[in-house]
Here is the input.
Amino acid sequence: MSTDETGQDGTGAPNTGAKSAAAKADIHGQGKGLVQLITPSGERVSHPEFDPWVQDITDEQLCALLEDMTVIRRIDVEATALQRQGELALWPPLLGQEAAQVGSGRSLRTDDFVFSSYRENGVAYCRGVDLTDIVRVWRGNASSGWDPYSINMATPQIIIGAQTLHATGYAMGIQNDGADSVAVTYFGDGATSEGDVNEAMVFAASFQVPVVFFCTNNHWAISEPVRLQSHIQLADRAAGFGIPSLRVDGNDVLAVMAATRVALDRARRGGGPTFIEAVSYRMGPHTTADDPTRYRDANELEDWAAKDPISRVEALLDRKGLLTEALKQQVKVKADAVARDMRTGCTTMPEPQPMDVFKHVYSTPNSWLDRQQDHYARYLASFGDPAEAVSEEGAR
Amino acid sequence: MIKEFRLPDLGEGLTESEILSWKVGVGDTVSLNQVIAEVETAKAVVELPSPFAGVIRELHEQPGTIVEVGKPIVSFEVSDDAATPSPAHGTPASSPASPASGPAVQAAQEAKRQPNLVGYGAVVESSARPARRLRNLSPMLDSDSPRFPVAGPVDTRPVETKPVETKPVDTKPAAAKPVEDRTPGMEPAETRPRSTPPVRKLAKDLGVDLTLVAGTGPQGLITREDVQHFLDGHGGGAAPEAAPARVQARQGERETRTPIKGVRKFTAAAMVASAFTAPHVTEFLTVDVTPAMELLAKLKGNREFSGHKLTPLTLAAKAVFIALRRNPALNARWDEVNQEIVTFNYVNLGIAAATPRGLTVPNIKDADSLSLLQLAEALTELTETARSGKTTPADLTGGTISITNIGVFGIDAGTPILNPGEAAILALGAVRNMPWEYKGEVALRQVLTLSLSFDHRLVDGEQGSRFLADVGAILAEPGMVLTMV
Here is the structure.
C-alpha cells in the first residue's frame, strides 16, 4: 500500500464536516451499505455479492443455525438466573447478539483461533466448549475457564480490546508458519476507542497478517452510546488503517456468515486483515450488575426487539414451511438439556483448593514457585485439619 | 426436605438489598427459575428467579425490608431427589491438565539463585530462549459442527489483496458469473418498473399498479404523464385494471390487532394506577385572556425575546409557578408507604407531549427558578426532544405537576388524568375569539378555558379553586402578579 493510493481514495477523506447534524445522528442506524440477506420480517433478499458465499447453506443447516441461536439464548437466560440465585458472581448477557456470534462462529475452521471478549459465550459454544467451563470463571472457581488449545479459543479477555493484540500476534505466527489458518478477534464498539485495538490494527495492516477483526457494534459501551464514541461508522474507521471493511446486519445470521467467510477467505489467501462491523444491539444489561433503564430509552429497545435475530430466522423458516412443531420441539428440548447440564455443572463444581493457586502460573517447572508452593503446603499442614486451614484462608 | 434460599450478592460487592415485593405466597408451588420476588439493590431493580422447584414454606422477610446479603429470605419444601443435584456433571475444580508442550519441555535446570538487589524476582531457569509452543494446526475438534462445512463457494475465487476498498467487497464471486451477462443498467427492470420516487408516490396515492403502466421515458422510465394517462384511460371507476388496486386496499383485515407494549402499555398502566388510586376532581374556569395575548405580542416585539417561541403555554406555566407558591398543596405527593405527604419546594414541570410513539410527560427540572426567556427555551427544547424520540428516562421521572396543552388540537376543555405521583394537572384549552362581557358591553374577546384536575386526598376544593382562580387571574390580567409575589 502506498501513501498516495490512500490519499487519492475519496473514502479516506474526512467528510463529517459537510454532514448535517441529523445525518450524523443516524449513521449508526441501519444506514447505507449494510449487508442484509434476511430482513427482520424473515424475507430472504438477494444480494449478488454475498449470496454465493452462503448458497451452500441447506434448509437443514438453517434449522441448525436456529437451534444454535436458541440454545445460546437459553444458556444466557440460565446463567442470568444462576447469578440471581447466588450461584454465579456475575454474568455478561449476550441477548440480541446471537446471530453475530453464531453466524461468525459457525464459519470458522477448527484450526482457526479465536480471541474474544467476555461476551462471546455463544462463540465459545460453537467452538465446542464444555458448558461447565463457560461458567467456571463467573463462579469465581478458577482464574480462567478452559485450556485454549483444546478448542482453539483463548479464554475470554476482560481487559477491553487487549485480545486484538493477541490475535494480531498469533496471526503473525501463522504467517511465519506459512499456514492458512486465521486468527479471529471479537470486540465491541467501545473497544474501538481503546489504544490496544488501534495498535493491533496498525500491526495487522503493516504485516498483512491473516486476522479478522470482528466488531460487534451493540450500540452501548456500558452506558456510553456509540454515537458519542464515533462520528463516523465504525466500519469506516478501518479505512484509516488500510484495512478493508464490511458493514453487516449483525442480527442476520446469514449475512454475518457470508461476511465472515469473505474475510476468512481473504486471510487464507494472503490478502491480509479484514474489519467486520456487525450492527447489533445489546438488549440486556451490560452485566447482571447493571441497570440499563437508567441511561437508555425503552423505545430504543422496542425498535431493536422488532429486529430480533432469532424471530427473523423463524419467520424465514415459516415462509419455507419448515418451522414445524417437531422442529420447535427439537430445538426446545436441546436448549433445555443444555441449560440443565450447565446448571448441574455449575452447582456441583468442586470448590477450588488453596494449593490450586499455583497451577497454571508457569508452563515449565520453576524452582522459585516450587519453593513457595512447598512453604505454603507446610503452612497449611500446620493447622492439622485441612478444613480449618481452608476456613482460615477464606477469612483472609 | 426444607431448603433455604439466602439473599445473594446481586451486583458486584453489594452488602444488602431491599425486598420490593413477593410474587409468590406460602403454599405456592413454584418451578425452577420462576420469578418469586422483586428486589432493589443499590444498582438496579432485579427479579429473583427461584433456585428450586418445590413449595414455598416460609417467606422470612416482608416487602419493604432491607436484607443483608447472606440472610435467608425464603424456604422451600423440595422433594429429596430434586434437592440433590446429580453429581454426574461435576468436573474437577482445576482447569484441564496443562497442555502438552512438546518441545517446550526443557530439562529443568536448578540454577543457582543470584543475589538480587531488592530480594525478589523469579530465578532464571536457563539462558535459553523460552520455547515456543507449536500452534495447533491440525483439526482436532469434533465439535466443529459437521453441519457447517467451511469450504463454501470460496475455492475458485481470486485473491483480494487491495488493502483499501471503497466498497465492502470488490471480488466478483465466481459463482455470480451469470450476473455479468446482464446488460448493465437493466437490472432494476427485472424487479420493478423504472420510475422515480415522486412518480411511485403519485402512483401509490392514486392506487395505480406501476407494473401495468407502459413507460415512455428514456429506457422505459415511467413518467408522471404515463401514470396520469394510464388513469385517464382506465378512469371513471369502470376500469377493470385500476379497480383491483382500490379493492385491494379495502381487502385488508377488517380489524387490526396490535400487541400492547412499549409506551402504550406503560401509559395504560400509569393511567389505570392514577385513575383508580387518586380520587380525581376536575374544575373549569373560562377566562378572557386578551390582556395576556397582548402581553405576548408585546414581548415578541421585544429585542430580548426575538427569535424565541412564546405561546400561551409559556405564560400559563409561569402563572402556575406563581399560583403554586400561594397554594403549595397542589405541588405535593401522596407517599402511601411512609404515610406521609411530601410537599415539594421546587417545581419539576411536566408537559404532556404527543410523540410518534404515544404520550410521554417529560418534565423541566426546577422550572420555577427559570426566567420567562429560559422557560420558553426549555419548553421548545423539551417538545423537540420528545418529538424526535430522544427523551431520556431521567427526563420522564421526578415531575411534580403537569400541564397538558389540548388547545393545540383546537379543544376547549377536558378532565385530564393525573400523571401518577402528582397532585394536579392543568389542561389549557384553545384561545378563541368569542363574544364576551367587557366593560359592561358584549365585545369580541380572546377567551380560553382552564381545566384543572387534582388529587382530592391532597387538595381540598378550596385550595384547588384558589389555585385555579390565581392562574386565571394572572392570565386575565398579567399585572395582577404584582399583588401576588
The CA atoms of residues 61 and 67 of chain A lie 10 Å apart. Chain A has two domains: 3-347, 354-395. The first strand of chain A starts at residue 113 and ends at 115.
